[in-house]
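Sanity check

After download, print the first record. It should look like this:
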Amino acid sequence: MLPRLRCLPLVLVVSALVGAQPLLPALAQTQKPTAAQPAAGLSVEQARAAATRILETLKNRDARARYAQFAPEMQAITSPSMIAATMRSQPPIVGFTLLSVRSGVSSSIVEAEINTKLGNRVVFLVLNPQGRIKAYYIDRADDPSSEVARQFARALSTGNFITAQSYLSPEFQQEITPAVLQSRWQELQKLTGTFLRVGRAVEAERTTDSQLVLVNLVFNRLSDNLFVVLNNVNQITGIDFPEVDPLASPIR
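Expected structure tokens:
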């Protein structure tokens, strides 16, 4: 059984999904229109066209166009220069294939396989009724849990909160927005001091459907662990930031 995580305003553990395929219904299950609420979302054709534009922009590495494709709440915590830096750190895309489209009232979900020089990835794009990105998730089921947790911590520490949110499970993404991650990270550094580096990630405990990973974070006032809980397909379902000892000695 996983140890109880320290309770902070950001999070408690959210129920893990059973597998990768339920991602689509998990995101869209509340999107069916009622008789009193006519459908106002994208059609399947519109969602497909929007996803194609988004993936072509990624392939072309056009940071300004990529920024314009985010929903306003996402644009508020990023910039074209930040997006350009993220693009430079990722392998070039050589092609993509749309796999499935599910259209809903408030969101449409498009599943696509992205082909890069380092291999293929499946990505799920969550689009708002205007065809702009409100969230996304990359299938990381085959990656080591410790590396997924460490990459999440690295995204947090570099201010890439949209990327950081992409590591969360679909259910958790509905609760923890990029703005929430930004706020919690900034609050943490008020207590810990300036962030210095991400250290080791250690797989601490595993159950049938959950994995606890401890990611060491080093600040100029202290070093402590970020607790990250992942489900059995490496989606993050729980996060707990380090507790701060006011008497802790500075890191030298």
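If your output differs, re-run the checksum step. Summary of this record's structure: The two ends are 36 Å apart (CA to CA).
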